[in-house]
């Protein structure tokens, strides 16, 4: 991470405030950036991610849409083919599926289909993940559905600074990006974020902590539990390297493989269910690219292969700090 | 009880099945150059269509959707649009594409399995052919919203079939066009068939045009084989969009005279009598008769036009057949603006594996 310098522009903010700050910055920098979605203008979004945008930039660029996710996705695509840079909010990831045909059949392939004549510089934002005691369909982690689609980028921030800087990168990117915001940590942590318009690179994983004994690979809200597990393991003398994958597609395999080559052990942590998850792609990449460096089998700590339970039982589904510690102890023992 | 709203849907035709005026013709009929250009485009489209089917039958083109019966509607669309407007097609719009500037070679490349068939050089803002039914309607309102955001006096014309109007995409899009007052024309080409499913099974609504009412938009029906009725309705709707007065839905009633595609066999689900009746209403013949009656056409002119169209098509076919396939690495080269590092290895693999051809 860059060094944070105190300035008038620097504030201690939450992740959702960082999203808001990035949207303000992007809209101020480029008239082509427009924002659309359900309840995002006057209400400022159900999580308040878009609060203040309508007042700052007007209804023309900050649009409340009818309640139709498929329409939101397709409208953003049409806007993007005209050179606008729409940032469309889906209120919850669990409601994005109505727009999947637009995402898969059009946003992801417009550039390829027209041999570069038209393209889709757009961002589809959605809060995702469990842990906030929300109703059914409000706790999904289905990033793997999008990671499977060629032509899409899938980007997941895990801190206020990365939310600000990755969202700016997404909006400036000339191709479609699915930006999934881990709502469990929307307000759980604050961080100083400098509103200087600096973006982070996409397609790059971030090594949050260097270590020698085991590589912990994760993204989204699970970064918090993974860092906590690494703290506790350090007390036991186990040195963990912690990597925030950040762009889950396309994967930055090089960073992952270099780390595993060094530590010889890998534990993958994600909230989504295990079967066909992004963790499986990470594990397969390690098997293909670093098998001979491995001193123990790759272990995954994930949600179970079942429907996300309603909130009374969601803590039993979500990976916990002790689950991660247990997995590390398992691979270290070998 | 208090009546809140009542609606009516008008239906327009100017020529009978034989091309005889049913009454006074609209002003469009006086623009002889435009009418002759329309007729030429209809003939060219039909000539192209039969050639494309022949290419498919002889293994030189992939599955192809015949445009037979849509030539009048498609030509009227192309003529009603300004160059700076944006066309949002479905997949049976050959007549419109030709007038928009898409080359016949590009059309053949698209159906012949080559992505360059959508790299249209002469109408760079038109959206590509949309195979997933009705999805293009959402793009149309997005393009129209972009025009409105930028205060441009431009319009979008979006095509959809009768089957497509059963999908949410259409209903969601006309709904947004009404709510946001967008400069878009939805052209529903009701050709009576969605592959084998007849219009009567798509909806219990008496007309498709009346669906516009639910979105707060005007809905009109035109005889889609009547050039004058169709082009007049489009001219009016496009002008309405240009002048900021909002969206229109037009239902053009026509008939799909061919199979759904070359992979279909329409004799399985419709009778020869039905088809024969539909041919009697053919819009090209109708316009040709009218041109004759007006003294604007002759057997010699027809012969010359047929020869010219045949030659134009043959030239395009030659150019299509002479176009070499892209190198296999092209499959990755347009996925993103620049290829992510993660995909570099796969590109190299393709390049190595297929060096010197596809052995």
UniProtKB/TrEMBL annotation, chain A:
Record-level Gene Ontology MF annotations: branched-chain 2-oxo acid dehydrogenase activity
CDD domains recorded for this chain? TPP_PYR_E1-PDHc-beta_like
| Designated gene of the protein | pdhB
SMART domains per UniProt: Transket_pyr (SM00861)
- What's its job? The branched-chain alpha-keto dehydrogenase complex catalyzes the overall conversion of alpha-keto acids to acyl-CoA and CO(2). It contains multiple copies of three enzymatic components: branched-chain alpha-keto acid decarboxylase (E1), lipoamide acyltransferase (E2) and lipoamide dehydrogenase (E3).
As cofactor, the record names: thiamine diphosphate
Q: Where in this chain does the record put each Transketolase-like pyrimidine-binding domain? A: 13-188
Q: Which UniProt keywords apply?
A: Oxidoreductase, Pyruvate, Thiamine pyrophosphate
What Gene3D superfamilies does the entry give? 3.40.50.920, 3.40.50.970
Supply the enzyme class, top level.
oxidoreductase
User: What is the protein name given in its UniProt record?
Assistant: 2-oxoisovalerate dehydrogenase subunit beta
Question: Source organism lineage?
Answer: Bacteria, Pseudomonadati, Pseudomonadota, Gammaproteobacteria, Pseudomonadales
Name its GO BP terms in alphabetical order: branched-chain amino acid catabolic process; response to nutrient
Q: What is its EC number?
A: 1.2.4.4
InterPro entries, A to Z: THDP-binding, Transketo_C/PFOR_II, Transketolase-like_Pyr-bd, Transketolase_C
TrEMBL record, chain B:
- Choose any GO biological process term that the UniProt entry carries and state it: branched-chain amino acid catabolic process
GO MF terms held by the record: pyruvate dehydrogenase (acetyl-transferring) activity
Cited function: The pyruvate dehydrogenase complex catalyzes the overall conversion of pyruvate to acetyl-CoA and CO(2). It contains multiple copies of three enzymatic components: pyruvate dehydrogenase (E1), dihydrolipoamide acetyltransferase (E2) and lipoamide dehydrogenase (E3).
**Gene3D superfamilies of this UniProt entry?**
3.40.50.970
What is the protein's given name? Answer: Pyruvate dehydrogenase E1 component subunit alpha
Q: By its UniProt entry, which PANTHER family does this protein fall under?
A: 2-OXOISOVALERATE DEHYDROGENASE SUBUNIT ALPHA, MITOCHONDRIAL
Return the EC number: 1.2.4.1
- What EC class does the entry list? oxidoreductase
Q: How does it assemble?
A: Heterodimer of an alpha and a beta chain.
UniProt xrefs under InterPro entries: Alpha-ketoacid_DH_E1_comp, DH_E1, PdhA/BkdA, THDP-binding
Keyword annotations for this protein, in alphabetical order, are:
Oxidoreductase, Pyruvate, Thiamine pyrophosphate
Q: From what superkingdom does this record's organism come?
A: Bacteria
Dehydrogenase E1 component domain: which residues? 39-319
Q: Which organism is it from?
A: Marinobacter excellens HL-55
Q: Which cofactor does it need?
A: thiamine diphosphate
């Amino acid at each position: 991470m860059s060094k944070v310098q105190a300035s008038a522009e620097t504030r201690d903010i939450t992740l959702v405030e960082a999203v808001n700050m990035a949207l303000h910055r992007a809209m101020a920098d480029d008239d082509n950036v427009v924002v659309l979605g359900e309840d995002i203008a006057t209400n400022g979004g159900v999580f308040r991610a878009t609060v203040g945008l309508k007042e700052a930039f007007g209804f023309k660029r900050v649009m409340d849409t009818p309640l139709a996710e498929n329409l939101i996705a397709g409208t953003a695509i049409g806007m993007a083919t005209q050179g606008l840079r729409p940032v469309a909010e889906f209120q919850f990831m669990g409601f994005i599926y109505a727009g999947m045909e637009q995402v898969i059949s059009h946003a992801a392939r417009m550039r390829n289909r027209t041999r570069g004549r038209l393209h889709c510089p757009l961002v589809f934002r959605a809060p995702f993940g469990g842990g906030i005691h929300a109703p059914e369909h409000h706790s999904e982690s289905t990033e793997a559905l999008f990671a499977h689609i060629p032509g899409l980028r899938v980007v997941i921030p895990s801190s206020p600074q990365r939310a600000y800087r990755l969202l700016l990168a997404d909006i400036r990117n000339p191709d479609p990006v699915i930006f999934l915001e881990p709502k469990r940590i929307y307000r759980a942590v604050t961080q100083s974020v400098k509103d200087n318009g600096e973006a982070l690179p996409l397609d790059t994983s971030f090594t949050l902590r260097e270590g020698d004994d085991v590589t912990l690979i994760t993204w989204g809200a699970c970064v918090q539990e993974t860092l906590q597990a690494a703290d506790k393991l350090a007390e036991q003398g186990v040195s963990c390297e912690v990597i925030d994958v950040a762009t889950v597609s396309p994967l930055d395999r090089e960073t992952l493989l270099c780390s595993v080559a060094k530590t010889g052990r890998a534990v993958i942590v994600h909230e989504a269910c295990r079967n066909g998850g992004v963790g499986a792609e990470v594990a397969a990449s390690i098997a293909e690219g670093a098998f001979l460096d491995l001193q123990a089998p790759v272990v995954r700590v994930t949600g179970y292969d079942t429907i996300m339970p309603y909130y009374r039982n969601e803590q039993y589904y979500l990976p916990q700090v002790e689950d991660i510690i247990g997995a590390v102890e398992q691979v270290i023992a070998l | 009880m208090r009546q809140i709203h009542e609606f009516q849907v008008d239906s327009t035709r100017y020529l009978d099945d034989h091309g005889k005026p049913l009454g006074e013709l609209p002003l469009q009929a006086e623009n002889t150059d435009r009418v002759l250009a329309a007729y030429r485009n209809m003939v060219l489209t039909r000539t192209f269509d039969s050639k494309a089917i022949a290419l498919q039958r002889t293994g030189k083109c992939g599955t192809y959707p015949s445009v037979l019966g849509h030539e009048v509607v498609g030509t009227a669309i192309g003529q009603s649009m300004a160059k700076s407007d944006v066309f949002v097609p479905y997949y049976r719009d050959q007549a419109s594409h030709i007038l928009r500037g898409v080359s016949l070679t590009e059309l053949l490349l698209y159906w012949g399995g080559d992505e360059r068939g959508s790299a249209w050089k002469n109408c760079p803002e038109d959206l590509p052919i949309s195979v997933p039914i009705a999805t293009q309607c959402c793009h149309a309102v997005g393009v129209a919203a972009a025009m409105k955001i930028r205060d441009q006096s431009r319009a979008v014309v979006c095509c959809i079939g009768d089957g497509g109007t059963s999908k949410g995409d259409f209903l969601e899009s006309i709904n947004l066009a009404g709510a946001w007052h967008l400069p878009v024309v939805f052209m529903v080409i009701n050709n009576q068939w969605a592959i084998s499913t007849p219009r009567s099974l798509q909806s219990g609504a008496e007309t498709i045009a009346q669906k516009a009412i639910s979105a707060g938009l005007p809905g009109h029906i035109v005889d889609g084989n009547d050039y004058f009725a169709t082009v007049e309705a489009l001219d009016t709707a496009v002008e309405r969009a240009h002048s900021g007065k909002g969206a229109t839905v037009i239902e053009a009633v026509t008939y799909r005279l061919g199979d759904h595609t070359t992979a279909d066999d329409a004799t399985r689900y419709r009778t020869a009598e039905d088809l024969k009746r539909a041919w009697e209403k053919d819009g090209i013949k109708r316009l040709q008769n009218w041109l004759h009656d007006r003294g604007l056409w002759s057997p010699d002119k027809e012969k010359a036009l047929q020869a010219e169209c045949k030659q134009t098509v043959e030239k395009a076919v030659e150019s299509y057949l002479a176009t070499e396939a892209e190198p296999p690495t092209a499959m990755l080269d347009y996925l993103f603006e620049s290829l992510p590092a993660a995909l570099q290895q796969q590109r190299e693999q393709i390049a190595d594996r297929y060096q010197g051809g596809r052995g």
